[in-house]
Design brief:
binds 2-acetamido-2-deoxy-beta-D-glucopyranose, 28% helix, five-stranded antiparallel beta sheet, binds flavin-adenine dinucleotide, alpha+beta
C-alpha cells in the first residue's frame, strides 16, 4: 500500500517535471500561431489575467502564458498545441472556483475567456447563445429587453463555470439545475477537435457528462440554452423578502428550513438561508439571513403565502423587508456582487452536523468571516431536470425507491440537496450534502 502510494507519487513528480520543462515551448508555439495579442506571458494584460481569480490562492499562481481566445478556433489551436507539448494547462471563465488550482496553473498555459463574452437571444428558436466569459449580471441585463433570462447564478460576478457544476439559481425550483437548460454545447476536446454535443447526437454521452459533471470532459466554447420567460423589468411578478435574524433565532430558522425542505412542493417559491459569522479580534458575531422570493403571476396572491413562509415570518428578526411586486431582474440584483473577491479562501468537503455550533468552528482558526448557506432542492426541481432529459447529478433512480422521479416508479417526496459554503477572508468551505427524506 505504502509502496504503491510512493510509486504513484514518483510518477506524479516526474510528470510534473516534464510539464514544467515543456511549458515555455508550448507558449512560444502558441504565440507563433495566435499572435502576441492573444498569447501573453508578461505585461499589463498578462498581469490582469493572471491575478483575476476570485480566490486569492488562485490569483497568486503565475501561468507561463495566458491565451485569450476570441473564437472557438483559437481554443482548438490552444488545445492541439497543449496536447502536442504535453503542457500543464487550466481554464478560467469567471474565476469564481474556490478550489485551489482549478482555474489557474503555475507555469502552465491559462486559457482565459475574458474576450469571449457574447450573448444573444433568438426568438424564433427560443434559444439563448452564450460564450463562456460572460458573467450572470451581464447576461441577465443583456437579455432583459427580450423578457428572457438564463437559469444562472444568484450573484452577478459569477460566470458560466457554474453551469458545468450543475448550478443553483433563483429559477431552479421551477426550471431545474442551470445545466438542465442546456440545448447544445460546442466543445473543444483535449486534442483540439471541435464537436457540437446534444442530447441525441453521437456526443450525447459528453452532453450528459457536462450537465453537472464538471469541467473534466472538454472545453465549452458556446452554450445554447433554453431560456426562462421571466418578463422585462416592467413586468413585476414576484414578491421579495429579505430577513435578518439575531443569533438567538438561529435554531428556529434551522428548524424552519428543515420543515420547508420536507413540506414545500411549490415551484414558485425559492429560498436561500445563510448563517453568517463576522469575526473581529476574536469576537464572533453570528447572524442569520433569509432571502425568499415568490412568483405570483399564476396566483391571486399579493402577500407571501403563509403555508410556505409563515414559519420564517413569525421568527423574531432584526429586520424584515418585503418588497412587492418586483421584476426578475430586481431579484437577480438582490445579492451584492463582488463578495470577497481577492480574499484567501479555503475549500473543503466534509460534513458538519447541523447541531454543531458554527461559531466554535469559525472562531478557532483566526478567520474573519464565514458563510454557511443552505439551498433546498425540492422534487419539482428534480422533475424539471428529468423533463429535460436528466443530468449527471440527480440521484440515480435505480438506487432508491424514494426518488421523486415518476418515470422510475419512485415514491413522491422531496430529495433535498443542501449546498452550503463557508466563505471567509480566511477560509472557504463548500459542502454539498444530499439528504433524503419524506419517504411515504
Ligand atoms: C461569491 C460566489 C457566489 C456563488 N453563487 C453561486 C450560486 O448562486 N449558485 C451556484 O450554483 N453556485 C454558486 N457559486 C459557485 C460557482 O458556481 C462555482 O464557483 C463556479 O465554478 C464558478 O464559475 P466561474 O466561471 O465563475 O469560475 P471559474 O473558476 O472560471 O470556473 C470554474 C471551473 O470550471 C472550469 N471551466 C470554466 N469554464 C469552462 C469551460 N468553458 N469549459 C470547461 N471548463 C470550464 C474552470 O476550469 C474551473 O475548474 C458561487 C461561488 C462564489 C464564489
Ligand atoms: C461576438 O460579437 C462580436 C461583436 O458583435 C462579433 O464581431 C463576433 O463575431 C462575435 N463572435 C461570435 C463567435 O459570434
Ligand atoms: C480527437 O479525439 C476525438 C475523440 O477521441 C477523435 O474522434 C478525433 O479523431 C481526434 N482528432 C484528432 C485530430 O486526432
Ligand atoms: C448562537 O446561537 C447558538 C445556538 O442557539 C448558541 O449555541 C451560540 O452560543 C450562540 N453564539 C453566540 C456567539 O451567541
Ligand atoms: C428545533 O427542533 C428540535 C428538534 O425537533 C427541537 O428539539 C427544538 O426545540 C427546536 N428548536 C426551536 C427553537 O424551535
Ligand atoms: C411564474 O408562474 C407562472 C404561472 O405558473 C409561470 O407561467 C411562469 O413561467 C413563472 N415564471 C417563472 C420565471 O418561472
Ligand atoms: C383568481 O381570482 C379569480 C376571481 O376570484 C378567479 O376566478 C381565478 O380562478 C383566480 N385565479 C387563480 C390562479 O387562483
Ligand atoms: C433593513 O433592511 C433595509 C433593506 O435592506 C435597509 O435599508 C434598512 O437600513 C435595514 N434596517 C435596519 C434597522 O437594519
Amino acid at each position: 500500500m505504502v509502496t504503491h502510494a510512493f510509486n504513484y507519487f514518483l510518477l506524479l513528480s516526474q510528470g510534473y517535471l516534464s510539464f514544467a520543462q515543456n511549458v515555455p515551448t508550448a507558449c512560444i508555439a502558441l504565440q507563433a500561431q495566435l499572435g502576441s495579442q492573444k498569447v501573453q506571458s508578461s505585461g499589463p494584460g498578462y498581469e490582469t489575467g493572471a491575478t483575476g481569480a476570485w480566490n486569492l490562492a488562485n490569483s497568486q499562481i503565475r501561468p507561463g502564458c495566458i491565451v485569450c481566445p476570441q473564437e472557438s478556433v483559437d481554443v482548438q489551436v490552444a488545445m492541439k498545441t497543449i496536447y502536442e507539448f504535453d503542457s500543464r494547462y487550466s481554464v478560467q471563465a469567471g474565476g469564481h472556483s474556490a478550489m485551489i488550482g482549478w482555474d489557474n496553473t503555475q507555469d502552465g498555459v491559462l486559457i482565459l475567456f475574458s474576450q469571449m463574452t457574447n450573448i444573444s437571444y433568438d426568438a424564433e428558436s427560443d434559444t439563448i447563445t452564450m460564450e463562456p466569459g460572460i458573467r450572470w449580471g451581464e447576461a441577465v441585463a443583456a437579455l432583459e429587453p427580450f423578457g428572457v433570462a438564463p437559469v444562472g447564478g444568484r450573484q452577478s460576478d459569477v460566470s458560466t463555470g457554474l453551469l458545468l457544476g450543475g448550478g443553483l439559481s433563483w429559477l431552479s425550483p421551477a426550471h431545474g439545475f442551470a445545466a438542465d437548460s442546456f440545448k447544445s454545447l460546442d466543445v473543444v476536446l483535449v486534442n483540439g477537435t471541435l464537436v457540437t454535443a446534444t442530447a441525441d447526437n453521437e456526443h450525447a454521452d459528453l452532453f450528459r457528462a457536462l450537465k453537472g459533471g464538471g469541467s473534466r470532459f472538454g472545453i465549452v466554447t458556446s452554450y445554447k440554452l433554453y431560456p426562462v420567460h421571466t418578463g422585462t423589468n416592467s413586468e413585476k411578478s414576484w414578491i421579495s423578502a429579505s430577513i435578518m435574524y439575531p443569533n438567538s433565532s438561529a435554531e428556529a430558522v434551522l428548524n424552519a428550513t428543515a420543515r420547508y425542505v420536507q413540506n414545500v412542493q411549490d415551484p414558485n417559491a425559492v429560498i436561500l438561508v445563510t448563517f453568517l459569522s463576522l469575526i473581529t479580534a476574536g469576537i464572533v458575531e453570528p447572524l442569520v439571513s433569509v432571502n425568499a422570493f415568490y412568483n405570483i403571476s399564476g396566483s391571486n396572491t399579493s402577500s407571501l403565502p403563509s403555508t410556505i413562509f409563515g414559519d420564517f415570518l413569525s421568527i423574531p428578526s432584526i429586520n424584515t423587508t418585503i418588497t412587492s411586486p418586483v421584476s426578475y431582474i430586481e431579484i437577480s440584483n438582490t445579492l451584492p456582487p463582488g463578495t470577497n473577491t481577492g480574499s484567501g479562501s479555503f475549500y473543503g468537503a466534509s460534513a458538519i452536523a447541523a447541531t454543531q455550533d458554527v461559531s466554535t468552528f469559525a472562531g478557532s482558526g483566526g478567520y474573519e468571516f464565514t458563510v454557511l448557506a443552505f439551498t433546498p432542492v425540492l422534487s419539482p426541481q428534480i422533475q424539471a431536470g428529468v423533463a429535460r432529459g436528466g443530468n449527471a447529478i440527480d440521484p440515480p433512480p435505480e438506487d432508491c425507491n424514494w426518488c421523486p422521479v415518476p418515470a422510475a416508479g419512485g415514491q413522491e417526496g422531496n430529495c433535498y440537496f443542501w449546498n452550503s459554503m463557508f466563505l471567509v477572508f480566511g477560509i472557504y468551505i463548500e459542502l454539498a450534502i444530499l439528504l433524503l427524506t419524506n419517504i411515504q
